[in-house]
Amino acid sequence: MSVRVGHAAEAPSFPQAAEKLVRNTQLRRNVRHATNVIRRKRARVVEELPDWEELREAGHAIKQHTLRHLDFYLEEFERKCTEAGGCVHWARDADEANRIIVDLVRAHDEKEVIKVKTMTSDETALNESLAAAGITPFETDLADLIVQLGEDRPSHIVVPALHRNKMEIRQIFLEKMKLENLGDRPEDLTAAARKYLREKFLNVRTGITGANFAIAETGSVVVVESEGNGRMCITLPRVLICLVGIEKIIPRFEDLEVFLQLLPRSATGERMNPYNSIWTGVAPGDGPEEFHVVLLDNGRTNVLRDEEARETLDCIRCGACLNACPVYRQTGGHAYGSVYGGPIGAILTPQLQSMRHSQSLPYASSLCGACYEVCPVKINIPEVLIHLRAKAVEQGYEPWQERAAMKAAAFALASGTRLEVAQKLARVMQLPFEHEGRLDHLPGMLAGWTAFRDLDAIPKQSFREWWAERE
Amino acid sequence: MSSAKEEILARIRANGEKDSREAEYDGIARNYRQTGTLSKDERIALLADRLHDYGCAVHRCPEAEIATCVGDVLRGRGKTHLLITPEIPADWLPNDCELLADSGLGYDELDRADGVLTRCALAIAATGTIVLRHAPDTGRRALTLVPDYHLCIVFESQMVELVPEAMQQMRAYGRAPLTTISGPSATSDIEMTRIQGVHGPRTLDIIFVK
Amino acid sequence: MNISLFITCYNDTLFPETGKAVVAVLERLGHRVEFRRAQSCCGQMHYNTGYQKEALPLLRNFVEVFADAEVICAPSSSCVAMIRDHYPKMARETGDEKTINEVAELVPRVFEFSELLVDKLGVADVGAFYPHAVTLHPSCHGLRSLALGDKPRRLLEAVRGLTLVDLPEAEQCCGFGGTFAIKNADVSAAMLSDKTGAVLATGAEVCTATDNSCLMHINGALSRQRAGVKCVHLAEILAARA
Question: What confidence score (pLDDT) does residue B17 get?
Answer without folding.
Answer: 67
